[in-house]
Amino acid sequence: MTAQLGTPHSGWYLPAFTSELTAEVTPLEIGTRRLVAVRDETGIRVFDADCPHRGAHLGYGGRLSGDCLVCPFHGRRIALGDPTRRWSVREHQVIVSGEAVFVRLADTPDDDRGLTRALKELGGTHPLTAAVIKPVDVDPVMIVENAFDIDHFTEVHKVPRLRGMAHRDGDEGELIIEGEFVMGAKPGSTSGPSVTRARFLACAYSPGVVVTRFGPPGWEQVIVTAAVPRESGGCVARVAIGVRPEQQGELPLLISGSERALAEDAVVWERLNPRVVPRFDGGDAAVVAYRRFCAGFREPA
C-alpha cells in the first residue's frame, strides 16, 4: 500500500540524536509507530516497542537483560529481533552518522534510495553535528518539501537571486534539485572565502530526510533536514550540520542560521490552511515532483 502524506512510511527517518539516547532504554515514536531504542555493547539499536504479550510499551520501564527487554507490565523476557523466540519484537535498520541516528521502518533493501551510501561518504568528510530540534505543527512532508519549493527561498529567506534550479531523479531513486544561490558574503563569517555564489544540491532520500550540500567548491557545508510525525499531530523537525575539520569555527554561525531559517518557515507552516487544495503552476514543478516521489513509498508492515 502506498504511504499517504504524513503517515509512517517505509523510508528513512531521523528520530533522534545520540544526545537524546543516553539511557540503556529510550522510547521513540514515528507517528503511530511506537519504538524503543536500546544501547548495548554493539551500539544503538531500535525495535518495535509493543510487548507481544499484552501490548505494554517496552520503552517506559522496560529494562535490558542480556539479549532481552524485561517487560514492565508482567516481567516477560522479550527477545530483541529474534523471530524464532516465542516473545520477540522486530528490529529496524539503524545508521548512526556522527550525532544523527537514522532509522528505516522496513525489512528489505527497498526504499534505501541511496542514503546508506551517502552517509558513508559524509562520515569521512563532513561528520554530522546535532543543530536543531523543533516541534512544528505541520504535516512532516512540508519540512523536506521546502528544499524543492524554489520560490520560497527568495520570499521567506530573502535570497537575492537563484540560478538554474532544476530537479531530476537520482540513480538510486532519490530526488535531486540543484542550482545556485547568488548572495552576499556571510555576515559574521570568520573564515573561508567571501561567498557570492553558492552551489545548492539537495537530495531527498525519503519523505522524511533531505541532505543538502551548500556553498562554493571546497568550502561547502552539509545540512540534513528531517521530520518525524507525532502521533498527536504535527512533527518534530531536526537539523544536523556537517563541516570539514577546518570549518569547525563556522559551526556556531551555521547552527544559529539553521535555527533562524526553520523559525522563518514555521511562521508560514503553522498558519497554512490544510483544507485548501493546492493549485500548482509552472513554478511548482519541483514540488510536484517531490510529492510524486513521496507517493512512491509504502506504509511499513
Summarize the structure.
With about 300 residues, the chain is α+β, with helices and mostly antiparallel strands. It has 5 helices and 17 strands. Strands 11-17-16-15-14-13-12 form a 7-stranded antiparallel sheet.
Number of helices: 5
- The overall average pLDDT, rounded, is 92
Helix content estimate: 10-25%
User: Between the first and last Cα atoms, what is the distance in angstroms?
Assistant: 10 Å
Spatial strand order of the main sheet: 11-17-16-15-14-13-12
How large is the share of residues in beta strands?
A: 35-45%
Secondary-structure-based class equals alpha+beta
The topology string of helices and strands comes to EEEEEEEEEEHEHHEEEEEEHH
Q: Work out the radius of gyration.
A: 20 Å
Backbone shape = globular
User: Biggest β-sheet: count, sense, barrel?
Assistant: 7 strands, antiparallel
Number of strands: 17
State the low-pLDDT regions, or none: none
Protein topology:
Blueprint: E1 12-17, E2 25-30, E3 33-40, E4 43-48, E5 63-65, E6 68-70, E7 77-80, E8 88-89, E9 91-97, E10 100-104, H1 115-125, E11 128-136, H2 141-145, H3 150-155, E12 161-169, E13 175-182, E14 197-206, E15 209-215, E16 221-229, E17 235-242, H4 251-269, H5 285-295
Which characteristics define this entry?
single chain, 301 residues, alpha+beta, 7-stranded antiparallel β-sheet, 5 helices
Written account of the structure:
The chain is of the alpha+beta class and 301 residues long. It has 5 helices and 17 strands. The chain has a 7-stranded antiparallel sheet. The model has no long low-confidence stretch (mean pLDDT 92).
